[in-house]
Amino acid sequence: MSAANEQDFQTPPPPSLHDVPRAPRPTKMRPYAIGILVIGAIVCGGGFAKLIPGGIGTGAALAFFGILLLAYSFIPLPVIPDAEPPLSFFEKVTGIFFEPARVFRNLRAHPHWLGAFVIVAVLSSIYWLAFVQRITPERIVDHMTAKIAELGPPFAPPPERIEQMKTTQLSQLKNPVEKAGSVIKTWVGLFVQASIAAALCLLLVLAFGGRINFWQSLSIVLYAWLPVVAIQKILGLVILYLKAPEDLHPILNQETSLQDNLGILFSPATHPVLFVLASFIGLTWFYFVWLRAKGLHYGATKVSSGAGWGVSIGIYLVLMIFVTIWTSLFSGFIS
Question: Range of 124's domain?
Fold first, then answer.
């Protein structure tokens, strides 16, 4: 009987690779990405036909944004077993100020980034529009063109080219259609910045031995960015209208008029490099580095608190070095 049983027994086949579920992809993005790409192509064509002022640059930015979203739609989403239900948008926006650990833990399983991006982009656009209206387009353009002329050969273009640049820039800041195009390009630029930061976070987390998905990284970057931008833009708007326009710099205060860093100890005209380095030592900068470190600790897998701090500080130092080098090359613009 035992021999018969041994003959009837068969080793079960190994599990098929086809039975392993594939990580889902954000395919719902694709119709929107294609729509943005088509709109960008139409706007760009309108710019070439001189029907839409500034349409070439705006259309190219929209088309690039659409291509980027289309490419991102093929990146797998994270699969977290037994995940908690997603927080509502309101819970995440308020929670990132008062209980960020809870928000970042939830983003690990549900890396929703769109709401944070829209808030960052809207606040940035509102501040920029208010800044242009308060400082006046004429003063901003005069400052920019004067500094370009001071570069001298071979960097400075000929005088006729500078006058043409002045006319073009004034049109961009005064024409409603071109101002709308500038806002669109700002949104695309912010998304590109967030994507680069997310890619750096992903690479550094992997270097530290942790695991993180690109969508987790992107959502962490944007939700860590949200409260900092809210503080800078909202308080910056208040200061913008409390100060006299003559006391505001047409370049340095384009991001915010809030001065919460050690840059106030140095004159940008006489010590531009020291001014930039000191500008990175401030309350909102430390808050941002802390939030991003906390986000990587709770939003990634196998990332200790020390590793989160290491990645966040590393990106902070890279940005500081890049901005310092750029400023040393073109220090005249902040004088």
Answer: 87-250+260-334
